[in-house]
Every structure is written in structure tokens, then in C-alpha cells.
Amino acid sequence: MSRFKNEVLHLQSHVRTLRLGAAGILIVALGLGAGWWSAPRDLTIHVPPDLRSGSTRKWWEVPPESVYAFTFYIFQQLNRWPTDGEEDYSRNLQSLSAYLTPECRTFFQHDYESRRRSGELRKRTRGVYEIPGRGYGDDPDNRVKVVSDQDWIVTLDLNADEYYGAEHIKRALVRYPIKVVRLDMDPELNPFGLVLDCYDGAPQRIVMPATPAPASGKADSPLGDAS
Predict the structure, then answer these.
(1) 126-139 in b/e burial notation, b at 16+ Cβ within 10 A?
(2) 3-class DSSP state for residue 57?
(3) DSSP designation for 122
(4) At the topology level of CATH, where does 64-205 sit?
(5) Whose C-alpha in 37, 127, 133, 169 is 20 to 30 A from the C-alpha of 69?
């Protein structure tokens, strides 16, 4: 009789062990499910534009090359007036608002209002582009200053051209020191996680070395200012 009793006790003990094991597996599965549910669905990985050599990066780090490319692209789009500055500048501020800090958005809005009142926008077209030989690859050490892993100062040397109809009315070679901060607030509207925080000082006019005059004896002179 004792043999059967011991066998029953052994089976009961085995059942308890299985139950404890099943409970442990359930707890682990719940923990894994919670971790999977809380994990981010998308990760933004900043890859340097130059892919001729390999690059190893922590996924949360933003390399200076990416900061420069972002800054130049957004600033160029902000200053692109393809048809009429009065409409294009306002539309750019609206469409690019996710790439500007609130303070910077207000700064450019005041700039727009000031230019509109003084007649500097109506029927004007405008575009900016890098001065040849003054891009990131030409002098990378002086193009992006790393303040912290959340802040940068980017130096853009740009040529700004403005037209009134077919007439070229302004050409300005300008150095823009632009503050950039990390603000990953709305990935749907701003997948870069970076925003412009306006200028780190007043834009400066660039004086280029004089070039020989054409054979006719006439030379084009730069127009405009550092605005």
C-alpha cells in the first residue's frame, strides 16, 4: 500500500513542478511580449553621405556630415522662391515649420513681414547654392562645430541670387552661421530629428578674390547684401 502512496505523491510532486515551469514560461513570455510592444517601431540611422569607405555608428549618434547635409538642404529650400517671393516665402515657412524651432519660425516670420512691407518679395525669385570650393568636403573641420551631442553650429558659404522677372537684381556671397539642435519630437513630420535654431551670429558678406575682366573690358559686379 505504501508503494502506491509513494507513487501518488511522486506524481503529484511532478505535476506541481510542471505547473511551476508553465507559470515561469508564461511570465517570461509576458515579459518578452511587453518588451516587444514597447520597442520603437522605427529607428532613424544617420549614414554619412560618402559611402566610399565603411562606417560604424551608434544608432543615436548624428555624424557631422549628416548635420551639414540636413542644414544645407533645409536652408536652401527655405530660401527657394521659384515664382513669387511673397507667396513662396510664406509657403516655405508653413511647409518647413517642423524643421524650425518655434523661436526660429518666429524670427523668419518677422523677416518675411519686414521684406513684404518694404517690397523685397513681390514678383521676385530667389535661390541659394554653395560657393564652389566651399562645401563640406572642401573644409570639413570648419563647417560643423560640435557643441554637444545635441547641438551643432554649421557654417554655410552660399551664393544668393535674386531676380525680378528676367532681370538679375541681387547677387550676394554670404557666410551663414546656423545653429542646429536635436529635437526628435514628431518623426511623421520631421524624420531627421534635427531642427534649425536660426543664426549663431549675423551673416557675413564674403569677399572673393578679384578675377580678370572679360576681353570687352566689362565685368559683372556682385549685387545685394548679406540678407
Answers:
(1) bebeebeebbbeee
(2) coil
(3) T
(4) Nuclear Transport Factor 2; Chain: A, (3.10.450)
(5) 169
